[in-house]
Amino acid sequence: MPEPEVFNWIPREGMETTRKPSVITVKFGDGYEQRRAGGLNADLKTFKPVFRVTDEYSRAALDSFLSRHAGIRAFLWRPPKHNRTVRVVCREWSISDNAMYTDFNCTFEEVTH
């Protein structure tokens, strides 16, 4: 299997990071419940970065990268203020064209493979 590509664009300040641990819960009749992690990698993150590009070449390159991976193929990315590279997929992004720049609003979901 080929090594995943590296995503090198730098997001704007203020990126949102969401954590929603996977938990399996068993409820019993007397109000008691038992919880456990939903697997070995139960605490994967979701990142919502915004990337601003100011020229047509960068716009085309970023759109091409995301389209090529098509929400299926994972790529490597190092989020700001994180000390490690993570493997993510981008299943959804929107593009906002303005007079002087273009913003890409992305949703990166951390994956394990």
* Number of beta-strand segments: 8
Taken as a percent bin, the fraction of beta residues is 35-45%
Output the number of helix runs: 1
The number of domains is: 1
Percentage of helical residues?
A: 10-25%
N- and C-termini, Cα separation: 11 Å
Given the helix and strand composition, which structural class is it?
mainly beta
Protein name: Phage tail protein
InterPro entries: Phage_lambda_TipM
Organism: Escherichia coli O25b:H4
Explain this structure.
The protein is mainly β. The chain has one domain (16-110). It contains 1 helix and 8 strands; from the N terminus they run βββββαβββ. It has one helix spanning 56-69, and strands at residues 16-19, 23-27, 33-37, 45-48, 50-53, 75-77, 86-97, 102-110. The strands form 2 sheets. Strands 1, 4, 5, 6, 7 and 8 form a 6-stranded antiparallel β-sheet that branches. Strands 2-3 form a two-stranded antiparallel sheet. The termini are close together.
